[in-house]
Amino acid sequence: MSFGLKLPGSTSNLGPGFDVLGLALGIHNHVTVEAATSGPTRVTIEGEGEDQLPTDDSNLFVQAATETASTLGQDLPPLRVQARNEIPLARGLGSSSTAIVGGVLAANRLFDDPLDEAAIVSLATRIEGHPDNVSPCILGGLTIASTANTGEVTYVRALPADGLEAVVAVPDFEIRTEDARNALPDHVPHGDAVFNTGNACLVTAALLTGKVDILARAMEDRLHQPYRADLIRGYDDVCRAARDAGALNVAISGAGPTLFALTTSNGTKVAHAMANAWKKHDVTATPRVLPIDTVGAVYE
Ligand code: HSE
User: Fold this and answer.
1) How far apart are CA 130 and CA 125, in angstroms?
2) Which of 17, 152, 194, 198 stands the most exposed, by the fewest C-beta atoms within 10 Å?
3) Could you tell me the pTM of the whole model?
């Protein structure tokens, strides 16, 4: 059996929605998968990560597929996996989530799709550790997802109001999610939690209703960005440049270091303003205006 998968990248948190909000982006990794009858599993990678990612059983895609097979009480056959990657690694654009979602979907397909959508979201979340990148990768659009103590994920997928552009400036340095999470405190003041709860609700409402002017205030965050800003050289200046160029607001994309802005019309100008601001800090950044992916992962 062989098939292909097209898996969108994503931006998560959207400022205050730490580990909850995610948005699928029009940048994709493509994978073809073939079940073999003998020999070891082999992965070939073209594009982003081709010199960095493992090509044996320790590859994240293979690990997620193996975990899925084990959850189903099955043995994974040896695989021939060919990946063509557009999503840069360790930049906060959901690259590892595409590997996890791809592995889960591939194993599910090899065993005739026993897992339904909700089970796929929960399993991918268990492997990733949080639902905010795997959910948009699976479902497309805007996702709001929360994990219960049982591990079950409750989620809603919706389409944001028309006319929004996702602008990213992707710098030439990486941040490992683990390092970005280690920068966070164990406890936060109650007032900060209340502040973020309000803003995460407002961001969701703004995106769904199109009342995007409130994003100027609603995308403020006190749970993670203040603690992570020091990991991103030029952070304040790049954020200011995005807002000065007309962005509705700007946030760290996922765990960073990519900075993500929302705009309604002047995306290219905002993207270049962000990259230019970074240049003044000796950081080369790639500016991009990305459509919102509305379909999520698809077999191809
Ligand atoms: N919500 C996660 C974080 C996304 O900010 O750490 C990165 O995987």
Assistant:
1) 5
2) 194
3) 0.97
